[in-house]
Prior knowledge:
Layout: H1 3-16, H2 20-46, E1 66-68, E2 71-72, H3 76-82, E3 106-110, E4 119-123, E5 159-163, E6 172-178, E7 184-187, H4 190-193, E8 198-200, E9 205-211, H5 225-228, H6 237-244, H7 258-275, H8 281-286
Antiparallel strand pairs: 1-2, 3-4, 5-6, 5-9, 6-7, 7-8
Helix pairs in contact: 1-2
Amino acid sequence: MAPWRILALYRSLREFAPTRSYCWLKLARRIGTTRNTSRRQGLQDQQLPIQPMAVTSKKTHPRNRAIGPLVNRLTKSQLYSKKALYKRPHKPIPATKVAEVDYAATKTVKVGGAKNGGERLVPVHKAPRFYPTEVQSKPKKPRKAHRAPGLRSTLTPGTVVIILAGRFRGKRAVFLKQLESGLLMVSGPFKVNGVPLRRVNQAYVIATQTKVDISDLKLEEKFNDAYFAKEKKTRDQRAKAKEFFAENGEREKKKCPDSRIADQKTVDKSLVAAIAKTPILAKYLATPFSLSNGDFPHRMKF
Length: 302
C-alpha cells in the first residue's frame, strides 16, 4: 500500500476513533488484510501444482498399557475378554481313563496254623482306612510342554562366568556348552581353581566380557544330562539304621570314578593350553569374586 494512501486512511480513522492507539490498531489490521489478499492473489496467479499428501499409517496404541511399575491397566481376565479369545476354537482334551478299583473283589490266600483252616478269604484291594471329611480340590495338570530355556545372548562358548550359588559360589569358570535341559556345562578348569566339570543353572551365573578361545576343544557327545546325573541306589531301611547308629559315626566317602577323572584331564588339557595364550588369565580365573564395602554389583561392568 502506498504511503499517501496510508496517511489518508489514518486521517479518516482519526475522526471517528476515540484514541490514537485504537486508530493505529485499526490501521494495522487494514494493512494486514490487504497484504494477505495480495499474497493469495500472487499464489493463485502462479498456479502451483497440488501435491498429494503422503499416506501415513494409522498410529496404534496397545490395548493394555502400564499405569505404574509392573501394574497394567487391564487384568489377565479383562484382556482375555477384550481380545475375544473365548471365540477361538478350543481343542478338546482327551479324557484319561482311570481304572476303577473293585473293593468287593476277594481272593483266597493260604494261611499257616493248624487251627486257621488252611485258607482265608481276603479282599484283593484293601479299602482306605481314612476318608476325607471335605471334598479335596485336585490341582490342574499343566498343558504346556516343558521346553529348555533359551541361552542368554551374553553367554557364548568360552565365556568366563562367575558362579553365584552352590558349593563353588564366588568361583570363576569357563562356559563350554548348553545341555538339552537348559543347564550350562562349565569347567574351572580344575587344575586352575578347583571347579570340575559340572552343570550350572544360568540364572545363578554372571557372564563377564572375558573370553577364552576354545575352538581347539572338541567335546564328545557323551557329555549330556545323563552323564552328570546321580546314580540312584536302593538300600534297605535296616541298613540305613545301622549306618546312622554306627559307633564311629563315619560314613563311606564317595569316590569319583576313574572315567570322570580321565575326562576332566582331557578337557583341562585343552583349556589350560588356551588360557596360557593370554597373560594373567590363569591368575584371574584362580581369584575368587567378592564384594567389599561400597561395592554395588548393579553398577559394575563385568
